[in-house]
Amino acid sequence: MIVAAADRVADLHDSLSGLDNCLAVAGGETRAQSVQAGLAKLEAADDMPVLIHDAARPFVAATHIQAVLAALQTADGAIPALPMADTLKRRDQASVVTIARDGLWRAQTPQAFRLGPLRAAYAAWPADQEPTDDAGVMERAGGRVALVPGDPLLFKLTYPEDFAMAERLAGPSRTLRIGQGLDAHRWGPGEAVWLCGVRIAHDQALVGHSDADAGLHAITDAVLGAIGEGDIGDHFPPSDPRWKGVSSDRFLTHAVERVAARGGRIANVDVTLVCEQPRIGPHRQAMRERLAGLLGLPVDRVSVKATTTEGMGFTGRGEGLMAQAVAAVEMPD
Ligand code: MG
Questions:
Q1: Ligand 1: centre distance to CA 185 (Å)
Q2: 12 Cβ contact partners less than 8 Å away, ≥ 6 residues apart
Q3: How many angstroms separate the alpha carbon of residue 218 from the centre of ligand 1?
Q4: Among 61, 153, 189, 315, which residue is least crowded by beta carbons within 10 Å?
Q5: Per-residue confidence of the chain (333 residues) as pLDDT tens digits?
Q6: In this structure, are residues 204 and 187 in contact, taking their beta carbons and an 8 Å threshold?
Q7: Does some domain include residue 95?
């Protein structure tokens, strides 16, 4: 029985469809009212064990449930509880007082009872008071509540740092994947060249169907390679006139979107430009910043390097420019 705010119950019904014996019911203004709303909808014998659990403690495991059920055999209620590890202080106006922690426990959930006695205990609870947990209601009705060892994993998500910890505990395990990309374009007439998304004035231009930005093409192929989604030509066929003369940043943006759609995230990118001209050094930082913007990464995760081939080969002879890139991508398993 999932008890939720009234305006969430319809969504919950959808989420629970296909799960047998799982119902959503509207809760009340307080925790105690919500618990009673859930109890009211249960159809079971009075001696049926009923466990009440805070959804804000998402790391409950079968062992916790088994422990309270076992203790319920010889008690009216059973709850997980942790001893106080820290010294307790009470601050009143100007003074701070140390409180003896001996015998103090932190109550957690799930809390186990039997349906009939728990309903009776709630019925007997004074209307003008607010119980803080179900064990307190049972205690007040004269029931004996057993403590079983609590678990730090049963912590309640209360503060922002609790959510950060929960995300680390619950996050999917990830595998680091590597992709590589290689691209080359021929030099032709022109007055500027696009490299890694930056326009550099030059006495030649690179020739290609798009803007011939070999740096962006290599990085795009590296990202697509890391997620096993083919290459730039598969996604943007050169035969398609839509991509003629287009700015290559849209190719990389597409690859980045594919990573995000798969639940992945790019860890870092490293590209090497191979050419005799133009000189890359003066533009390197601008390229890193441009790439960081396209990739959604801090600049220190983007590397741009350059080398010549000492006059050898097609880059050395000035026939063309080559770019080689690797990308590391963290993907959910
Ligand atoms: Mg290319």
A1: 6
A2: 2, 4, 24
A3: 7
A4: 189
A5: 999 999 999 998 888 888 888 889 999 999 999 999 999 999 999 999 999 999 999 999 999 999 999 999 999 999 999 999 888 999 988 899 998 888 899 999 999 999 999 999 999 999 899 998 999 999 999 999 999 999 999 999 999 899 888 988 887 778 999 999 999 999 999 999 999 999 999 999 999 988 999 999 999 999 999 999 999 999 999 888 888 888 999 999 999 999 999 999 999 999 999 999 999 999 999 999 999 999 999 999 999 999 999 999 999 999 999 999 999 999 988
A6: yes
A7: no
In this structure, the answer to whether residues 187 and 328 fall within a common structural domain is: yes
**Residue 215: burial class (beta carbons within 10 Å; 0-12, 13-18, 19+):** buried
Rounded to the nearest angstrom, the distance between the alpha carbon of 305 and the centre of ligand 1 is: 18
Q: Are residues 180 and 306 in the same domain?
A: yes
Q: Are 192 and 205 in contact (CB under 8 A)?
A: yes
- Ligand 1 center from residue 25 Cα (angstroms): 58
Contacts (Cβ under 8 Å, ≥6 apart) of 167: none
Domain range for 317 is: 174-332
As for how many domains the chain has, the answer is 2
Q: What is the pTM of this model?
A: 0.57
DSSP letter for 24, please. E
Q: How far is the CA of 184 from the centre of ligand 1 (A)?
A: 6
* Contact (Cβ atoms closer than 8 angstroms) between residue 232 and residue 213: no
Report the C-alpha gap between 255 and 272 in whole angstroms.
19
